[in-house]
Design brief:
- With 288 residues, this protein is an all-alpha fold.
- Helix content is 80%, strand content 0%.
């Protein structure tokens, strides 16, 4: 397969935008659940418009798929809320690094869901991921903001692993935009009640930040990423995807002056290294 240079550039742009969402979220001074709500509302509306403009299929094939995708939408609502909560209580580095541990949970969940054998290499990778997390944790105390950030980040990671497994099922049957629309739309409905129970003071910059995260960092970036993958090898796409955390940390340094500690750097290198290796290995197995 001959790789298209323009598509590779598009992948980098998409991943750079993914990484930017966490930094933008730091400038938004509203509860994390509102940031997540704004993100999924904006992105689902934009995705719906794109589907209607292109006159693409909007319905799912089976009733059970509607039920499953609604459950996954609720999981997505938890995923985005915990992601922004992790970043708000700790740092962009902590939030993005702990999010990268999702292969740890895939190692044990995927064989159960799809009746596959657990590989020794995957178990070893999971152990190394845990080592990376333990290195990153400053102290085992719920009063420590960094520790709480790691806990929220791990919950975010678990939910992403569940989303990955569900999307493996849906990707065989439906277009990526349609899956994303239903998942994000359901997440928006799940999070919508918070508007009536939590009072906030929304500033202009808060609204602008949420709109940017939803439209640019989610809907536009996701569409760009999916379209670019058609002319790029899976290994290349996986490698570039792994740079999301790196981009996020660089943005945090440039715009927030967040400097990772030695523990975060070492733990992050372990986590990112294992996560990227696991992702690439999984893509190779899928192709073979």
């Amino acid at each position: 397969m001959k790789q298209d240079k323009k598509s590779i550039i598009y992948l980098h742009v998409a991943v750079m935008l993914f990484g930017l969402s966490g930094v933008i979220g730091q400038f938004v001074e509203v509860p994390s659940v509102f940031v997540a709500l704004g993100r999924v509302v904006c992105s689902s509306i934009l995705l719906l418009c794109m589907i209607l403009i292109k006159k693409e299929k909007l319905r799912l094939d089976q009733r059970k798929d509607y039920l499953l995708i609604m459950v996954i939408g609720a999981v997505l609502a938890i995923h985005w809320t915990t992601f922004f909560q992790s970043i708000q209580v700790s740092s962009v580095a902590i939030g993005t690094i702990t999010f990268s541990t999702y292969p740890l949970f895939l190692t044990f969940l995927e064989p159960i869901v799809y009746h596959e054998k657990i590989r020794k290499e995957s178990v070893m990778g999971a152990v190394l991921l845990l080592v990376g997390v333990f290195i990153t944790i400053p102290e085992f105390s719920l009063e420590n903001r960094m520790t709480m950030g790691i806990i929220w980040g791990m919950i975010c990671s678990v939910t992403y692993a569940i989303l990955t497994l569900a999307n493996r099922y849906f990707a065989v049957k439906y277009d990526g935009k349609l899956i994303c629309f239903y998942e994000q739309g359901t997440a928006a409905l799940v999070l919508l009640p918070v508007v009536f129970f939590v009072r906030i003071r929304m500033r202009i910059q808060d609204a602008a930040g949420i709109l940017f995260i939803g439209c640019i960092c989610t809907a536009f970036a996701y569409t760009l990423f999916v379209s670019a993958q058609k002319k790029v090898k899976a290994q290349t796409a996986g490698l570039i995807s792994g740079l999301e955390t790196v981009y996020g940390i660089v943005y945090a340094f440039l715009f927030l002056r967040e400097i990772p500690t030695i523990r975060e750097i070492i733990g992050g290198m372990v986590i990112l290294g294992v996560a990227m290796y696991t992702t690439l290995a999984r893509k190779e197995d899928t192709q073979n």
